[in-house]
Amino acid sequence: MKIDSTWHTYHTVWLSTVIILFTFGIWWLVDSAAHRMKPLPPIKRRNASLVPSPTPIEMPTPTVDKRRVWDTYKSDKMQIYFTYPTTFRVDETANKITVLLDYPERPMRYMYIEKTKNEDIQEFLDLKMGSSLKDENIKEMNIVTTRLPDDFIANRNVQVYETNEGWETPGPIRTVIIPTNEGAYVIKMNYSNLKPEEQASSSPLDVDYVSGFNAILNTLSIFEVNPTKPVYDETFYKSLNMTAFGFTFDYPGYWYMNINGDQSLELYDPSYGNSNCRGDCPVFFMGFSAEPLENDVDIKTEIQSRYEGYKELTFETVTTDKQITFTKVTGTPGGTYYHLFTIHNNKLYTISVGAGANAMLIDPTDPETKNDLEKFNKSLNSFRFLQ
């Protein structure tokens, strides 16, 4: 067969080109791989000694303050319940509840709650406020108990005592006596967060016992089958010297107080009404306030501007035993019988009194209310300015 020379020449050139291109491709791939495998040159730093090495950041491990976790303990036998830190342990025997941390991991601290008869604690009940009693049964130590001002716990007036030290536990030891219709609850607790061997250096413990025990007292409730209304000493009065307000007065010692900054305070009778009431309960209160005035004002004009729109206001001038003159105003809104206003040292002083529930007034001729109004008048007549 005869082959066309032109076609043969063309075929030869095409085949040679393919071989050349294939050979070049193999060479390029090998050369590129060789370059990629060469190590990179080191990075040149201007001054390596001036570049600090990174400091590792230690992230703190989150901790949970177990003292803020609380549980509730209820004793049907002792007829009480309270909340307590879950780090504490609660044990109960015949007529005694003990709240403590396990010993000896930490220095011994405890709270005892016992039921007792009045004759078993008569020497404490007979102790006058501010007086002390020495324990003559323990000769090795000078153990002295002093009666402190009364307090209000578990919805009743309680007596409070403090002992300087204990027989086997560090002092001071706080004792609270809560009266009942069958005797009393006696609560004793170590009232210190200091280590026993370092009392003088004020070295604290890692557990705030005092706050824990106080929280138990603040949440303590007694549920008697036949609850009786607590009996208060109505002849006992305290003197309140309020420097920030600029006045002083006497008030029933068992009333509790609510102070609002340096301008006002209220006093409430805890024995008023039904002690088992919950919610909007009747209260008897008296309030005191001192408000600075920017300019000299006419007291009646100032009062009318504060109660603008109340046309039933009546004004009367009264003078106390301390010869302080007040403007008595009745017909104001809310659960208040009346307000007393006076201006002294460029301050407007207001004294209020009232009894009611949910802004509804109680009849002032009600025997219980009338009795508290007499207490208010006694406080009012003791009111005087400090300067």
What brief labels describe this structure?
eight-stranded antiparallel beta sheet; 387 residues
The gist of it:
With 387 residues, the chain is an alpha+beta fold.
Structure description:
This protein is an alpha+beta fold and 387 residues long. It has 5 helices and 22 strands. It has an 8-stranded antiparallel sheet with strand order 3-4-5-10-9-8-7-6, covered by helices on one side. Strands 14, 15, 16, 17, 18, 19, 20 and 21 form an 8-stranded antiparallel sheet that branches. Strand 7 (144-153) and strand 8 form a beta hairpin. Mean pLDDT is 77; it is low at 33-68 and 198-202.
Question: What characterizes the major β-sheet?
Answer: 8 strands, antiparallel
Strand content: 25-35%
Distance between the termini: 143 Å
Calculate the mean pLDDT score and round it: 77
**What is the radius of gyration computed over CA atoms, rounded to a whole number of angstroms?**
41 Å
Shape: flat
Strand order of the largest sheet: 3-4-5-10-9-8-7-6
Number of strands: 22
Q: Quaternary arrangement of the chains shown? A: single chain
Helix % is: 10-25%
- Count up the helices: 5
* Structural category: alpha+beta
Element string (H = helix, E = strand): HEEEEEHEEEEEHEEEEEEHEEEEEHE
Low-pLDDT parts are 33-68, 198-202
